[in-house]
Amino acid sequence: MKVEYINPFIEASRIVINQILGTEPTVGKPYIKTTPYTSENVVTIIGVTGVIRGNVVVAFSRETVFAIASTMMGGMPVQELDEMTKSAIAELCNMILGNTATILSKNNLSIDITPPTVLTGDNLEFSPTKGVVICIPLNLENGATIEININNTN
After folding, report:
1. pTM of the prediction?
2. What domains lie within the chain, and their CATH numbers?
3. pLDDT at residue 83 in the model
């Protein structure tokens, strides 16, 4: 996958996480995942069409989701994956992908995104049938990691 496609995901993630959580994530080295791959306990899936075609899977641990949702809800303690918590995580991912689309469009590249779907469970396994999965690890100040997994089938 081209760097010109990956960098907007990184830039958008940094902007949104900084705005919403008040922290600047450090970006780990992007790498290619072999498939099938397993993911954390909570994932948000967003479909993508355009210059990038496939899906984006954003993966979190439960603890990370609770901390993020708590911050997004003004500090209210969050200790369960209820509908409000899932909605907060879906909105964070929607904002990241929406910002990514905006950054790409400024470079005359276009993508459309689907509404996010949140999945929860243990050892969630993903088996994209086509394309490559690029993982961008985002490390937060509290030691938590968010993974942005981009499956581009173009």
Report:
1. 0.93
2. 3-152 (3.40.1550.10)
3. 95
